[in-house]
Amino acid sequence: MESMGPCEAELMEMFEDRVIPVCGDLGQPQLGLTQEMWDFLASEIDTVFHNGATVNYLFNYNLMRDANVMGTNEVIRLAFEGRPKEFNYVSTTFVFGWAVKSVLYETDHNEDMELLDFGYSQSKWVAEQVVFDARRRGLSTRVFRPALVSPSVTGGGNNFDIAVRLVAFMVNHGIGVDTLNQVSFVPADIVANNIVAISTTPGTANKTYHIVRDDYSNMMDITGLITQATGRQFEAFSLPDFVPELIRRCRKEDLLFPLLDFLVGSVDNISAMEFKRYDNSSYQMARDASVWGKADPSLEDTVNGILKFMHRKGIISVAPREVDAVSANDPLLDCTDALSATAS
After folding, report:
1. What is the C-alpha to C-alpha distance for residues 66 and 70, in angstroms, rounded to an integer?
2. Quick one: pLDDT band at residue 228, thresholds 50, 70, 90?
3. Which of 29, 42, 86, 337 is a plausible cystine mate for 82, CB 3.0–4.6 Å?
4. Whole-prediction pTM value?
5. Taking 50 as the threshold, does the pLDDT of residue 206 lie above it?
6. 61, 53, 56: which is closest to 131 by C-alpha?
7. Cα–Cα distance, 94 to 50 (Å, whole number)
């Protein structure tokens, strides 16, 4: 918790009073739990939020199968045992791989496994099929497909995912990419909040929801807002020119370096899906129907949250102007938003 930003003592007390951690292992039979703990959970809980997974763009399917597929199967087995339960599965838009359809709807499932050429997307696709099979067998389920989950608008978070690594590299090197690919950052606290809000709303079961921004944005929009917030100027490259520039500049000390081969090997696929867009009509309707649902923060606030996070973690060489204005020793953040994301 502390790694996500300073937390008020009252909030930590509430967290410790209400959250009981149970250690397990998604890659083990029965989730690595004792029979006693398994039976206790099966008989006491009434709702499951399954968002655990191995996320690695370099691993093949076999390396991810145990945690992402078999782990999901075990969580579903727990959901079927004991008292009736609601099962909420956090998937990903990566189940569509490098799809080139103009619009991907929430009712689409990529039935033919088209353009799934890396282990993470393959394992999440198979895990979805496990959930859909459980739905057919009578389990009440919801499938949530986030796209790019970003730090909270206050800068809370603790994850250097591929998007954060790429944006940090672009900021530090002053290079941008001029392409129309949809870039849909939704802060983690908003994602977590709306998953819970939708899951408690009548009439939302047995549906799939794309957690993407209501309004389209692309990487030029992102870098433009970064320039406004920090003064950092970007030299824009077309996508075919951006990747060679990235290769030329990237060094072993860059956070992006381990993912360089993945990005280089994916550039043609990324180019091919430049005009692909995600529909989120069901998500919007269910979110707005809940008194707890939260609309997207502005893109400006979202980008500033990413900048605050990267500055706090020391991975960018510039800071948002509002961060520059206060002492580095002051508590810039509270972890209220990060807590809501963790609790999901």
Report:
1. 5
2. very high
3. 42
4. 0.92
5. yes
6. 53
7. 17
